[in-house]
Amino acid sequence: MSKSSRLLHYAYVLDPSLPIGSFPFVSELRQHITEGSVTALEDVEAYMKCHMHSHMVSMDGMAIKGIYAASKQYDGWRIALIDKMLHAQRTPRDQLSSARISGQRLLKLGKALYPWIDFRDLQKILQRYRAVGTLPTVHAWINFQLGVDMEQAVITYLNAAVNACVEEAAKQLNETQISKKQVLQRIMKDMEQEWENSKDAEPVHSIKPFPAWNLGAAYAVNPLHHNKRMLPTHP
């Protein structure tokens, strides 16, 4: 892991209020634990294998890949498109503000850690196309600016997301550090293998179409209206 990747990952761990990547699943896990359907970390492992791997890899992982490709071409419209796809698939329309929180927290951390990056470029993209700024979008954009390899950016994100779920479950279930570490290693190994098997797919095609209500008419039907002048190339 590069120095910049380690520093960004440290920012994730440093701020426990940041619901990293897996925020919908953390709340779902809490609910299952409260209801008694999840009573041990082995149950968490089974739950994640059934419900999280394909979602996180094929949606979040491939979205990060797509944002890297769009950033290399200075394509702000495509970045916003991917971000809206993520938001439409994951969050009801009336929960727009809560979906924005995670990305905004990471933006704030990024500005503090990397003051030499002009975050106004990303903010202009989000404002111009009325995008949310989901966590995968902000994560990918920051790592691209830092010159972090795309593969490493994806694996760092997946690691952070898995950690968030397992840490929360271990805390709720009063599991030992040894048990937590063993389960975490197994889940992450499976997650990385899924990414290895999926990473060569086309990034945009791996995300399902979004509802028409989520976009303005010109935005939805005519990508030629977008402005490709948007962000600097990383060193």
UniProtKB/TrEMBL annotation:
Lipid metabolism as a keyword of this entry, yes or no, is no
Recorded hits in Gene3D superfamilies, A to Z, give: Urease accessory protein UreF
The domain of life is Bacteria
One Pfam short name? UreF
Q: Which keywords does this chain's UniProt record carry?
A: Chaperone, Coiled coil, Nickel insertion
Q: Which residues form a coiled coil?
A: 166-194
InterPro entries listed in its UniProt record: UreF, UreF_sf
TM annotation in the entry: none
Q: Which PANTHER family match?
A: UREASE ACCESSORY PROTEIN F (PTHR33620:SF1)
Protein name from the UniProt record: Urease accessory protein UreF
